[in-house]
């Protein structure tokens, strides 16, 4: 998943050669608070009467009950993928029921921000296929940042993660399975991890087609491999306790499990 994007870095990347006197012109620049959410993907739109594109789009989780400092993430995979000349952007990271700060930055570094609350999550159901049919297995893993093969470990240790935060990736082998399907199904898949301090990250997104047959399974060998690094960069801590990992199909909650960091 994406590393943290520094707001200052974003500004530096957007220094424009256009005359700054143009910024003095009167204009309207704001993000629309009404969102279109279709199958787990959110369309963000904004107004800029001066047309000072291209724009970079970013988001940050806003949770009053959280004790954690949340990261600012690009709305796409990286800065380039989050840059658009349009006045709309489709983001697949935002999770149902969560509250977010949205940010759009123009070519001069001027920013428009707003806070939105995503519609509440429904429990997954698609015909006879229900959330109760989706099985998930977790097992802790680590690997060297050089790209070594993932290795299984007995448990995730907060002290080990802190001591090797720049040397190793820590995460989970995340496998989910479903029963035999009567017809092919295609979903926008989102996986979200939340720490005991409230730090939250969308650690995986993809479009997956599940075909017919005797059953279907899919796994991620190092799910959440950047989660602990990003959390540590923002909070200087790896809290012990119970973590939650959620699976969404088309924005609907398909599975929720917990794991422990000792």
How would you concisely characterize the structure shown here?
The protein has about 260 residues and is mainly beta. It is built from 3 helices and 19 strands.
Report on this model:
- The chain has 262 residues and is mainly beta.
- It has 2 domains: 7-117, Sandwich (Immunoglobulin-like); 125-261, Immunoglobulin-like (Sandwich), CATH 2.60.40.
- 8% of the residues lie in helices and 45% in strands.
- A hairpin with a 5-residue loop joins strand 8 (99-105) and strand 9.
- Residues 11-22 have low confidence and may be disordered.
What's the level 1 CATH class of the largest domain? Mainly Beta
Q: How many separate domains make up the residues?
A: 2
Strand composition percent: over 45%
Given as residue ranges, the uncertain stretches (5+ residues, pLDDT < 50) are: 11-22
List strands and helices in order, with pairings.
Elements: H1 7-13, E1 29-31, E2 36-38, E3 41-48, E4 55-61, E5 72-74, E6 83-84, E7 88-91, E8 99-105, E9 111-117, E10 125-126, E11 129-130, E12 135-144, E13 151-152, H2 158-163, E14 168-178, E15 185-194, E16 200-210, E17 216-223, H3 227-235, E18 241-249, E19 252-261
Antiparallel strand pairs: 1-3, 2-3, 3-7, 4-5, 4-6, 4-8, 8-9, 10-11, 12-13, 12-14, 14-17, 15-16, 15-18, 18-19
Features:
3 helices, mainly beta, 262 residues, five-stranded antiparallel beta sheet, Immunoglobulin-like
């Amino acid at each position: 998943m994406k590393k943290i994007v520094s707001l200052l870095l974003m500004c530096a990347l957007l220094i424009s050669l256009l005359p700054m006197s143009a910024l003095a012109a009167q204009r309207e620049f704001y993000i629309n608070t009404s969102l279109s959410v279709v199958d787990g993907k959110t369309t963000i739109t904004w107004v800029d009467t001066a047309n000072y594109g291209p724009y970079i789009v970013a988001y940050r989780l806003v949770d009053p009950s959280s004790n954690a400092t949340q990261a600012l993430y690009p709305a796409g995979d990286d800065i380039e993928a989050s840059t658009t000349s349009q006045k709309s952007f489709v983001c697949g990271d935002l999770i149902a029921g969560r509250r977010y700060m949205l940010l759009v930055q123009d070519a001069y570094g001027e920013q428009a921000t707003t806070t939105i609350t995503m519609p509440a999550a429904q429990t997954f159901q698609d015909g006879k296929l229900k959330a109760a049919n989706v099985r998930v297995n977790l097992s802790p893993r680590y690997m060297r940042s050089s790209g070594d093969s993932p290795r299984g470990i007995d448990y995730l240790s907060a002290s080990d993660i802190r001591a090797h935060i720049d040397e190793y990736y820590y995460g989970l082998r995340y496998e989910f399975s479903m029963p035999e399907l009567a017809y092919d199904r295609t979903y926008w898949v989102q996986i979200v991890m939340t720490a005991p301090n409230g730090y939250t990250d969308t650690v995986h997104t993809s479009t997956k087609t599940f075909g017919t047959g005797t059953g279907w399974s899919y796994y991620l060998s190092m799910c959440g491999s950047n989660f602990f690094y990003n959390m540590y960069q923002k909070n200087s801590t790896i809290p012990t306790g119970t973590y939650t990992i959620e699976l969404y199909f088309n924005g609907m909650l398909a599975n929720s499990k917990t794991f422990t960091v000792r």
